[in-house]
Amino acid sequence: MIKQLVGKLQRKPSFNNSHSDSNLDANSSLNLSQEHDSHGNHKLNPGKKSSARADQTANMSGSGYEPLPSLRDVPNSEKQNLFVKKLNLCCVVFDFSNPSKNIREKDVKRQILLELVDYISSVGTKFNEVAMQEITKMVATNLFRTFPSPKHDTKMPEIYDADEDELTVEPAWPHLQIVYEFLLRFVASPETDAKLAKRFIDHSFVLRLLDLFDSEDQREREYLKTILHRIYGKFMVHRPYIRKAINNIFYKFMFETEKHNGIAELLEILGSIINGFALPLKEEHILFLVRALVPLHKPKSVSLYHQQLSYCIIQFVEKDHKLADIVIKGLLKYWPVTSSSKEVLFLSELEEVLEATQAAEFQCCMIPLFRQLGRCLNSSHFQVAERALFLWNNDHIRNLIIQNRKVIMPIILPALERNTRGHWNQAVLSLTLNVRRVFFESDQELFKECLDRFQESEAKEKETQEKREYTWKRLEDEAACKSIIDETDISSAFTASLTITTDKPANNYK
C-alpha cells in the first residue's frame, strides 16, 4: 500500500535518514482544532510532531522511495507542479472502518493534506485551470459519498427523541476535516478566480455538497454550512440554483422521508441569505416562504430546527409586514393538536411574529388567531396556558389587542372566566386574573357587556344541557318500560304455548 501511495515518487539508489528528515515540513504535522479567526474562518493551531513520523521516514527510506520535497523547499516556478502531484497522492482513499489497517499510509496522507492546507493559505499567485481541476478532483474523491442508513427508507416514527438516538461519528474524520479545511480556504482565497472556478465548482459539485448535509456527524455539517455560505457569496451565478436545491431537500424531507440531519444547518444558511434579500421581495422568495418554510412546521421533528426556522420566518415578516397575515394563518393551519411541547414552540414564534405585525395585518387574522389562543388559555397543560397568557406582557401585542378589544374581548373573556373558576395551576390562575384586569381597565362597559353575554350563554348552555339530560332520561325510561312490556308479552305467549302443548295429548286419548 505504501507503494500505491507514493507511486509517483522518484526511485533513487539510496538516501540517508537525515535527507529524509530535511524534506519533512514542520507545518505538515500541525493538529487541527475547531477554533476560528476574527472573520469566522477555521484556523489551524500548531501542535507536536507525530511520534510515528521518524518510523515512517525510515520505512520509506528502506523501501527505496524518496518523499516529494516540501512545497517550501522548492523554487516558486516548481511549486505549482509539485502542488498538483501532492493533490494526486491525496486522491488515495483509505478504509477507516478498521483503525489498525494502513496506519502509516494514513498518517503520511494526513501530513500531506496538512501541508496542502498551509500552502493554499499562503499562496501568492492565481490558481490556474489545471490546479483548480485537480483541487476539485481531490475534494470530490475524499468527500463525496453516500450515507447508507435504514432510517432514511422509512418515515420518522411517532415518538422521536434525538437525545436518545446515538448519532454516528464519522470514522474518517481525521482526514475529512483537513479536506474540508482545504476546500474552505480554497473557496475563500483571493487567489481563486470565481469566473474560472465556476467551471469546476459547478451545479453538480454544489448538489453533491448539499447531499453531504445529511451526515450524522455535526462537525461535518458545521464545515459544510461555512463552505456553502462562502460559495453562495462568491459564486453569484450559483445562487438561484442553490436556493432551488435547498427547496428540493425540504420538499423531500416534508413529503417523503421526514428524516434529514441537516435541516437546521440549511435553515441557518437561509437565514443569512434572506437577510440579504432586496426590497421589494421577488415572487420567488414569497413562494419559498409559503411553500417551504411555513409547511416545515408540520413534521414531528420540528423542535430540532425550530429556532432556525423561526429566525427565517421573522426575517421575512420584518422585511415585508404584509406577510404577517400569511405566516400567522400558516401557523394556525399546522397548529399541533396533541403535542403540548410543539404548542409552546408555536406560541413563542407567534409572539415574535406579532411583535413585527402592523395593525392592518393584525386585523386580517385576529378572529381565528384569538379563537386558537382561547383554546390554549384553557389547556390543561400549564405551560401552554402560561405561554399564551405571556402574550399580554408584550407591550406591542397588548396595544394591538386593546385597539381591537371590541372584537377580541368577546372571544377571550369566556376562556378567562373558565380559568378563574377551575384551572388547577396557581401560576395560570394568577396570570389569568392579570389579563382579566387589563381588559377591565381598558373598557369597563364593554367588559361588563361581554361578561353578561358570557353568563347568559352559560345559563343557556346549562339549560340546554339539562334539557338534553332530561330527554335522554325520558328515552331511557321509555325504553325500560317498553322492555318490561315486551318481556311480559313474551312470558304470556310462552305460558300459553305451554298450556296448548300440555292439552293436546288428553284430546288424542279421548
UniProtKB/TrEMBL annotation:
Swiss-Prot/TrEMBL keywords: Cytoplasm
Signal sequence range: none
One GO biological process term: signal transduction
Region (Disordered): 1-73
UniProt KW Membrane keyword: no
A cellular component term, taken from the record's GO annotations: protein phosphatase type 2A complex
Compartment(s): Cytoplasm
Record carries keyword Oxidoreductase: no
Major subcellular site: cytoplasm
InterPro entries: ARM-like (IPR011989), ARM-type_fold (IPR016024), PP2A_B56 (IPR002554)
One Gene Ontology MF term: protein phosphatase regulator activity
Biased amino acid composition, Low complexity: 16-33
Pfam families: B56 (PF01603)
Gene3D superfamilies: Leucine-rich Repeat Variant
Residue spans of biased composition, Polar residues class: 53-62
Purpose: The B regulatory subunit might modulate substrate selectivity and catalytic activity, and also might direct the localization of the catalytic enzyme to a particular subcellular compartment.
Family statement: Belongs to the phosphatase 2A regulatory subunit B56 family.
Protein name stated in the entry: Serine/threonine protein phosphatase 2A regulatory subunit
Organism: Kalanchoe fedtschenkoi
Organism placement in taxonomy: Eukaryota, Viridiplantae, Streptophyta, Embryophyta, Tracheophyta
